[in-house]
């Protein structure tokens, strides 16, 4: 396998894993981009294999979801199982909880 093909496969796998993790935590791409300090377009490029993340961004992604880098870049089943095992302790839970609380606040305000 050529190095270019291996890199493209790794980017594709990372993007697939991140999309699964976003769904697992019920997060939007925009919320994750904001949390990481990335532009929404920059995160979109990573999610769709258009670019690879810098090492600090890859590390921040792994920390955010509570998994290690090998898992984040590994096969999807292993990645999702590892993330599910630490679901409640994952730092991105704070984003999901804030989003849920804000949505509940808006709903109750509109009901009043």
List the helices and strands and how they pair.
Elements: H1 3-24, H2 29-36, H3 40-47, H4 55-65, H5 69-72, H6 76-85, H7 93-111
Helix pairs in contact: 1-6, 2-3
Explain the overall architecture.
The chain has 112 residues and is mostly helical. It has one domain (3-111): 434 Repressor (Amino-terminal Domain). It is 73% helix and 0% strand. The chain is built from 7 helices and no strands. It has helices at residues 3-24, 29-36, 40-47, 55-65, 69-72, 76-85, 93-111. The longest helix has 22 residues, at 3-24. It is globular. The N and C termini lie far apart (62 Å).
Q: Summarize the amount of helix as a percent range.
A: over 70%
Assign the CATH superfamily.
lambda repressor-like DNA-binding domains
What CATH architecture would you give?
Answer: Orthogonal Bundle
Main sheet properties: none
The average pLDDT score comes to 87
Question: Which shape, going by the Cα principal axes?
Answer: globular
Poorly predicted ranges (pLDDT <50, ≥5 residues)?
none
Please provide the count of β strands: 0
Number of helices: 7
Structural class: mainly alpha
Taking all Cα atoms into account, the compactness measure Rg is 15 Å
Oligomer: single chain
Instruction: Specify the CATH class.
Output: Mainly Alpha
CATH topology: 434 Repressor (Amino-terminal Domain)
Provide a concise account of the structure shown:
The chain has one domain (3-111): 434 Repressor (Amino-terminal Domain) (Orthogonal Bundle).
């Amino acid at each position: 396998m050529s190095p270019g093909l291996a890199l493209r496969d790794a980017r594709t796998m990372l993007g697939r894993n991140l999309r699964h993790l976003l769904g697992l935590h019920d997060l939007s791409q925009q919320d994750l981009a904001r949390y990481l300090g990335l532009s929404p377009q920059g995160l979109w490029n990573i999610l769709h294999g258009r670019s690879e993340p810098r090492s600090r961004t890859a590390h921040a992604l792994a920390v955010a979801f509570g998994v290690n880098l090998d898992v984040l870049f590994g096969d999807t089943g292993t990645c999702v199982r590892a993330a599910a095992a630490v679901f409640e302790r994952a730092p991105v839970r704070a984003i999901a909880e804030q989003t849920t609380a804000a949505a509940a606040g808006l709903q109750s305000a509109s009901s009043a």
